[in-house]
Amino acid sequence: MAAWFLVVFSVLFSLSSANVQSKVTDNPADQLVTTLNANRTAHKEPALFDNPGLACIALQYIKAYQGSCDEVGGPDAKKPPDSDFAETFAPNCGVLASSLSPITGRLLGCQSKYLGPSEAFSEILMTKDKSLEILYNKNHTQVGVAVSGSDGGSPYFWCILFSGGKTNTSFVLEGGVAKVSRPGCFSGANDDCNGARDWSRTPPTWTLAVGALIALVYAVGL
Ligand SMILES: *[C@@H]1O[C@H](CO)[C@@H](O)[C@H](O)[C@H]1NC(C)=O
Ligand SMILES: *[C@@H]1O[C@H](CO)[C@@H](O)[C@H](O)[C@H]1NC(C)=O
Ligand SMILES: *[C@@H]1O[C@H](CO)[C@@H](O)[C@H](O)[C@H]1NC(C)=O
């Protein structure tokens, strides 16, 4: 009975939300962009263009960590070399190397437990001292967001890349289409991707055993 009610309710809810927000896809990365832009506009900064080429690169950025959460923040923090953008990330996404633009900010978070986009934003990504400064930086014109678990499970990574490039001449996709790769979701491509939500339903047993939320964040202006 309760389950039946929930099904009816969620169908009604998805129908009504589909009517209101036809552009927002069932994709946690798109939802994080919506949260981020709402926060910027509340702070009188313009909303950023959601660039699928940049977002695909954000997913490659996550993949460079190969699931090593402890390399995101803390004493063992590492970041991929900048040369990876042109040599690996852009070709993997079908982004024209000639259209790469400077990155004006990066926020990267990794945590053991899956959190939804708005919780990941406020409880993980915005927790560093520099996070707000990066979020409100006036040099950004566009953003790309990605989320992925390693092999579809814990730990979960979120990556936000900001750029100051011209919105329709930077991170240009060959043929105009993003190369969708799984596991992981990225923003801006009108791609339904609810993989992250499915992962959260079946947490690996070790996360249950640990219980606590382990979260590491990396925030850098350039
Ligand atoms: C924007 O995000 C920051 C960090 O999570 C939060 O403190 C602030 O209240 C948010 N602002 C709005 C208007 O939601
Ligand atoms: C914006 O970019 C200019 C030129 O690169 C730089 O001098 C300035 O510090 C940047 N502003 C911020 C807030 O990062
Ligand atoms: C690029 O963006 C500008 C401003 O948003 C727009 O006026 C122009 O038509 C766009 N160019 C192309 C090729 O889409």
Into which percentage range does the β-strand content fall? 15-25%
Q: Could you say what the CATH topology is called? A: Pathogenesis-related Protein p14a
Low-confidence residue ranges: 1-22, 203-211
Ligands in the model, by name, code or SMILES, are:
2-acetamido-2-deoxy-beta-D-glucopyranose
What's the structural domain tally? Answer: 1
Estimated structural class? alpha+beta
Number of strands: 6
User: Number of helix segments?
Assistant: 8
- Over the alpha carbons, how many angstroms does the gyration radius reach? 17 Å
The rough form would be described as: globular
Largest sheet: 6 strands, mixed
What is the second-level CATH architecture? 3-Layer(aba) Sandwich
Query: Average pLDDT value?
Result: 82
Portion of residues within helices:
25-40%
CATH class: Alpha Beta
CATH evolutionary superfamily: CAP
Order of helices and strands: HHEHHEHHEEEHHE
At a glance:
By secondary structure, this protein is an alpha+beta fold. The chain has helices spanning 2-20, 28-42, 52-63, 83-93, 117-125, 131-135, 195-201, 205-210, and strands spanning 49-50, 103-111, 142-150, 153-163, 185-186, 215-220.
